[in-house]
Give the backbone structure.
Amino acid sequence: MNSDSNKENNVKAALRDEPAMAPPPEIEKIFREHHQRVTQAAYRVTGNSSDAEDVLQSVFLRLLKKRQPPNKSKNLGSYLHRAAVNASIDLLRSRRRRKAIALDDIVDHIQGGKEMDPSEQHRSGELRDWLRGAVSQLSTQASEIFILRYIEGYGNHEIADIVGTSPGVVAVVLHRTRHRLRDELRSFLGGTS
Amino acid sequence: MSLEKRNPEKLLDETLQQISEECLDSPQVESAAARVWSRINQGDVTLLPVAAPADKIRSCEDMQTLIPAYLSGTLPKARTLLLEDHLKECVPCRRALRVARNGGKQKAQRVKVRRGMSGKLVATLAVAAMLLLALGLGSEGLLDPFLPAPHGVRATVERVDGTLFRVSNNGSIPIQAGETLEDGAEVRTARGSRAILRLGDGSLIEVSERAELAINETYSGKTIQLARGNIIVEAADQRDGFLRVATDDCLVSVKGTIFSVSHGTKGSRVSVIEGEVAVRKRKETTTILAGQQITTRASLSRVPIAEEIGWSLNASEHIRLMQELSTLQNELAAVLRPGLRHSSGLVDLVPGDTVVYLSIPNLTDSVDEAYQMFLDHLNQSPELQAWWSEHGDEVQPRIEEAMARLQDFGGLLGEEVVIAVSMNEHGEPEEPIFLAQVRDTSTFRSLLEQEVNQINSEIGQEALVIVADPQTASPAEAEALYLYENVGIFGASPSLQRLSNLAAAIDMGASGFVGTAFQQRLAQSYSEGVGYLVGVDLETLLNEGLIRSQAGAQDQIAFERLGILDARHLIIERRPSGEQMETRAVVSFSGERKGLVSWLAEPGPMGVLDFISADAKVVAAFVVRDPEQLIEELFGFLEASDVSALEDIVRFQIEKGINIQQDVAAPFGGEFAFAIDGPIVPTPSWKIVMEVYDPSRLQQTLEWLAEEAAVELASQGRVGPEIAVQQSGGRTYYSIFMQDGGLEFHYTFVNGYLIAAPNRVLLNNAIEFRETGYTLSNSPDFQANMPQDGRAHFSALVYQNLGSILEPLAETVANRLGQISPEDQERIKQMAAQARSTLMYAYAGSDSIIVASTGDGLPGMDLGGLMGLGGLAELTRDRNSGQRNRQ
């Protein structure tokens, strides 16, 4: 049990906030270049702007805490993109638990639909909400891969690179996830009609 | 249209599309970014909220409380990491996870149970276990085991060397020779002790050291419950009941035989010294014969029976008996070899529509000679005499009588018996006809009449009917076998019509069979010399059969794609060739081989064999035509026979982004080999060698497969295989292993070949064999099995030289077991030396496939054994049951 408590302490230590420190200039550069991408991705996944703001902050805080920030590798963009997606999923999960829906959300729903009558618009907002919730219930890997593919529009090969697996695994995960979500949607529709 | 009525697939896509199009205005983004950056700058920040504060995690119970959240994906990342890490090293928690995944409740109770089972629970479990045990043992006679025989003595202690304990809750009490054991009494032998128990029916149980057993008796029989250890049972003839040995993983049933059962932590091993034993493990029952052995688990390897019974007081007698029997078996086989027949007076008389033709040599003289030889052996060998006096005395008069009858009849018959089967208009087999030539017709007739009368009166009905003229005879009331003899030709058939046709053929001098392609093929076999001969007219059977049975067009196309419709004849011949028996099966085709039957390539050099040493125990190798084309043809066949299966494959390929033809088949060349080459223990030294044209592509595919398996296993909560790469001595070695330790193997690419083996030493050995020329083709044993014909190559071969394992093993055993006398050691070695190697091989010609074998060492290991009459009997039975089903 001793080793377990040690491990837990390590994990907790990693999560504890560190004393304030001015961010190094290269982080500022990265922030300038990539904040748009991160915020938009977070907005798409979480579906509201204040969550997107939280995610942006969270992603860059984590970046700061890394002892060796990913140097100007060409994959920095997709690294941050992935980080944004993951942080958003985490947020969706915790928010789901809190069951709190911000005022923003309602506004966002209304902004969402374009050429629909009001009731359709309302339903489609409900659907997007449902989908976000359903995705957040998936396993970490599945939700990440699913979002990168269908919301963020990456190809299987790119996702495989980003997540560090093979295109085959990506294809399998996507297939299963789609299948599962489709079934859940069917029962969701059955339940709400 | 309302949402509910829309296709969920489409709706999902639309929703995803909407989400992916959502975006914040640029000013919104910029203002959010400005706020975030200023907070970061001032250090006025916290990370995203994680889960609600959780209790401290101190124990496995605490860990297991996290599982539901973990499964629903709501467990915070830190906790997830912690739990996943813990799961890797904690079996009970992994089990709890598995249970929770399968919909079971979180096992808080399980933890409690482990802390101390309640008395009630223990009692329930015990009752359940007893019920299960009783059911498992009793399914042969479901209620029998519940009907115990009257209480009483079950066994007497015949002899004790050392200490034998009677075990009970009150402790262990030593017992002496002469004492009795009542029903269910548990006994245990001490270290270094042995004991012999005698059952009421005279059966003897010899018990090794540290063995524990109890004997139960019910009305239907006796069961020896072997908890652990080795026993040898010399079962007396069980008249009505049975004698069984039960371990926790198998049930052995016998009726008068000698066998040994060894049961330990890894499972059970049953060896038969003499007679026949049925072993049931889980749901399957296997019958094993003298000299054979079976184990209940793969991890428990077989050992030479001599080693298995080496501890026995009677080891040397058992071993000598086994040796005598195996020598006798070999000598009898030699005597029973038929001479070759170069012509037949019967082949021209079989029905014109014959599709199956069997010719069996009349072995009466040989059988008689064999019997005399057996009696000689019996007189010379005290072991055999002892065995025979125990088991054979009763049957000897019956054997003598059977031999006399065989002599009477067989002596009057010609040199072969022919059985012919035709096909009726529905494509089903008709009643067969038996044909034989008669040497002395008048003696034969009177003998036949005498026998028929005797048999009919014994049975009490007219089962055998002698007909003078089948063309005018009227059929018997009940089913009967009609017998007919004319001008030295004897025929028998359940169908009067068949005999009537025979009579016509005898008058004409020939039947309608003469001149058919099948008859010509059989005549060709006769001209080359025939021992045992089986001929099947595949052309008629398949084509006519297909048409007559009104198979659908779909089936026809499928058969055509298989290439089977082009098959003409199957000829199986077994005849002596030099000192050995050779069995050869030829399938000929009416044109060039097509479809799946053309997969086997024409004989070619097998470079794969260069990686296999001269000491290999078992080798299987074959050459195929272009593997890529094979897959294409397979798809073609599926297209015709099972479109949905093909669709599944295509979908699979698209989903997984793999092309089976390109990624899996194309990298391979045409040669494949599998071998057991090296030590058998602790891990059998297997090896696979394959010709590879494109190693890098194959490697890619393998990696993909490993990942695919990982995903699949991950969904079951298991860790998948991993491929590790290592460079050494200028060579790249790959290892695939399962994290949970189940599987591990290594492979490397050498000069266009892939070699795979359970460890790297074997890989290096294989490469060395090739470099030093110490290869299978140079093995004297392998060479001795080479058929004497003009061909240099094979299309496929299966070679076994298990004697080469037995010999060194026998030596080790002999050295290790001090109890075995030098003479016995010598005997064991002799027996091992007598186990001969065999070779089965195939030549694929452009319009035929020939499968043949040489060597008649171990029973069942050659083609003759595999395609023996037992198999034919099975086939007939299947057909009959098929017919019944159709009706």
The radius of gyration of chain B is 35 Å. Chain B is about 40% helix and 25% strand.
